[in-house]
């Protein structure tokens, strides 16, 4: 069957590829299993499928062997694609030759958006310092190109016109011609970076602004921005959900508000080029006569002050306008980024145009390109050193849980009210007629709203109270386990954190943390690992870095395992308290009892000759959770030998809900164990189409024969259980508004079970769910 479409293929060992591949090559990939992109179906999860869809990618796959790649030939490309390929290859070859190592990798990221060669340390430093936008081709980069070209062309055209067409120069034609000529380098840069969607959007915005100059519409830059957004959404309606679209337009709107509305309406510098810039009103105003009396160093000093004042206000505008999107999408805010951008953005405005000029000229005149590369080396070293230096500061950036939805309304009120107040010239509470003015009332309202914004941003769950509900969520983390428990007293617990082979994805940060932040959680009261397998403990190591932890539950005090010990030390270093779980001794968390059933001392003596042996599957921590009449059993990755031992010990295994042992392996989940637990429902936590066939069909059939309701994270997404101790409800998270990930059946039904529990008067209690 023939099929067409764009596919993303990942090679796990790209350094071993010996075939030189270029645009236009016809390639055959063998032994590749293509899959439709899938999301982790948890509340707050990143819409990876939608992200790829906006880029036209319909399937993904992976390659691990070079034998899977076969070059069949080459087909001719359209002229513009051929030109694009030649230019890009030439620039990349020059970059690799002139700028080896991380300098070249950083320049590739800043010029072309290619970040795959950057070290993790550099990437993390740029994120922590709020400078990651410099490594994504955006309006800032294309704006640098347009601005540099405009600054060069404007005086040149003015000089030529004043010499040959003075009347044109006096009429302001030089600006229009400069704007028109600036379109050429912008289009050239777009040719290099396309087909990146972000670059196309940013290029369209910059071209729209240049066009506004051509048609004398600089006064209506807001209208130009709205037209650009409208046309982009006409071309791609899904772009409105793209975070880069939201950030780009929010940042531009913030800048335009500062530039357009802070000057007084009768003295708008945008209307008349060459007048006093708006930001000089915030400094000491010097008339032209006094300015002429200043010495050259004093003029330079004043110019620098004005430049950095303008940069400060523009940075504030961008920071304020993009803050809600950064919190809701990334849950990370850089505290140092506001000030560091004042240094790095001006340097970037020099680096990016200079690098493009050096690389372009270097392709024609190598000696000239080599000469221009000297200052680039110094600039690139600054861009490598400065972010990493400041990222090492404590609280350079902080992680915040997602605030409640109403927070955005409060924040918008504070932002709009602050702008309104800043434009007022009078702040008295009464005018000359004795009438009450709204200024004082607005100020009081803004103070209260600002306190609300800060409070809900730091403590989003401050208004929540204790309830009767115990909530358990088995998250969709692929092939692995991660369980979140919220107790009725609002304390929280994370049992296991998932993890991918070779840490190809940081499941703790990208999946589990996203779920917690979405729920407004910034602190974990109890953290525990069932054992030290990668798919259980890896995510916990990330959570220990991202959240404050109250207690570490240690069920292996009689064992030594390097990975569990490392996790424990990391958690304890953050002032957490270690609680040793002893088999059979319950830990009371409010009304909830959490009891460790395994591993006990006898089992350890029987199975572990050397106590330094790794805590493997059979030594998994088995926990029983009891709340009033409700019970649930968590079993880690225990196998049939451990199941048999637990049954022989006559431990309290019977439970309403069971988290299946070892993801549904056929070497676990024995019929005897299923009978001993006798659960109403079993939850399998496993990856979609995993190679181990978890849950195994034989196991699924055993539970069906026992009359157990079956829930699977690979097919149903995350599973959520809520109970008041008498009635319990189970349902899955199914984001239907994004469309199904595949053709698998999803569950949306609810199971409610009411225990036959009477109060003192003999009347059945009513459900409270």
Task: Describe the structure in your own words.
It contains 24 helices and 22 strands. A hairpin with a 2-residue loop joins strand 15 (622-627) and strand 16. Residues 263-286, 426-436, 736-746 and 754-769 have low confidence and may be disordered. Among the domains are: 1-76, no CATH class; 407-458; 470-754, Metallo-beta-lactamase, Chain A (4-Layer Sandwich). Strands 12-11-10-9-8-7-20-21-22 form a 9-stranded mixed sheet. Strands 13-14-15-16-17-18-19 form a 7-stranded mixed sheet. A two-stranded parallel ribbon has the order 1-3. With 769 residues, it is of the alpha/beta class.
Question: Care to give the gist of this entry?
Answer:
With 769 residues, this protein is of the alpha/beta class. The chain is built from 24 helices and 22 strands. Residues 263-286, 426-436, 736-746 and 754-769 have low confidence and may be disordered.
